[in-house]
Amino acid sequence: MSLPYISEEQKKRDFQMMLACSTHLGTKNLDFQMTRYVWKRKPDGIHILNLGKTYEKLMLAARIIVAIENPADVCVISARPYGQRSILKYSQYTGATPIAGRYTPGMFTNQITKKFMEPRILIITDPRTDHQPIAEAAYMNIPVIAFCDTDSPCKHVDVAIPANNKGKQSIGLMYWMLAREVLRLRSTISRTQEWDVMVDLFFYRDPEEVEREEKEAMALREAQAAEVVAPIQQWDDAAMAQGMPPVAGAEQWADAPPAQPVADNWNAPAPQIPVVEADSWDAPAPQIQQPAPGGWDAPAPPMPQQGTGGW
What is the pLDDT along the chain (311 residues), one digit of tens a residue? Predict the structure, then answer.
């Protein structure tokens, strides 16, 4: 299939990226339906895929996907961890519906389930791992586009894109190129300019590796912050002359009388401490003044008698 709308320079860059991501490397096993896509076999038994057919099948799949009116009717599935980040990024830029992780059986056939959906087309990362959605798509007459390795079963697969679906770089590159071609066919981005989204965003990242990189970046920032120390100001004569005003009376410090030396004789008598005369314990206690007759100890006045009338 000829692709006149793609320049030779663009094809050359795409093939270089596929070679760098090991998209052409298959496995030692070979399915009989994948024989047409194999170019050669290495001495160690690894089959090499024909990247020319991979590129043509990728462009064909993009033209099929663009024919779907509603982008949400395109369902992208990946149960393997290496393809989950790729399908999420692909869905973000193209508007497709991703199913990352475990696929719930019956999503395409059982209408009672809460996650029931009727997509127009499926994009599968690995036909061997994602066999359940492929079987249900066959029941519901849903076309399937799949990335197939040399040992992948092609049963119920309508468009097989020969590629290495075992490596994280290869899977990310395939989804990145598919998303770029879909956006170009939709006229969302220009074909004459490079897509501003880097292919690294589609690659799988190990959570432990991400955490280690964050710790290293934090340690580097702390080390840089520790190196930035405030300069120590030197109190020399030049600094005093430039920035500090003279202190009043500083030049008379040398004329001050010397301090009196402390006596070195430890046998000298200690100074007498004045003794305060205390009151004698034998002195009579002062007389307590008696309260007035009308004080608190006086008897209470008699209560007045009530009249005979009462209430």
Answer: 556 677 788 888 888 888 988 888 888 888 888 888 888 888 888 888 898 889 899 999 999 999 999 989 999 999 888 888 889 989 989 999 999 888 888 889 888 988 898 999 999 999 988 899 999 999 999 999 999 998 888 889 999 999 998 888 889 899 999 999 999 998 888 888 888 888 888 888 777 777 777 788 888 888 887 776 545 555 555 555 555 555 555 555 555 556 555 555 677 776 676 655 555 666 666 666 665 556 666 666 677 666 555 55
Contacts of 277 (CB under 8 A, 6+ apart): none
Q: Is 22 exposed, middle or buried (0-12, 13-18, 19+ CB in 10 A)?
A: middle
Please tell me whether residue 124 adopts helix, strand or coil conformation: strand
Beta bridge partners of 124: 77, 146
Name the pairing type of β-strands 121-124 and 74-78. Answer: parallel
Q: Is the pTM of this model over 0.70?
A: no
CA-to-CA separations, 214 to 207, 210, 222, in angstroms, rounded: 11, 6, 12
Distance CA 113, CA 288 (A): 102
Sheet strands side by side (includes 74-78): 97-100, 74-78, 121-124, 144-148, 159-162
Name the nearest CA neighbour of 131 among 117, 114, 116, 144.
144
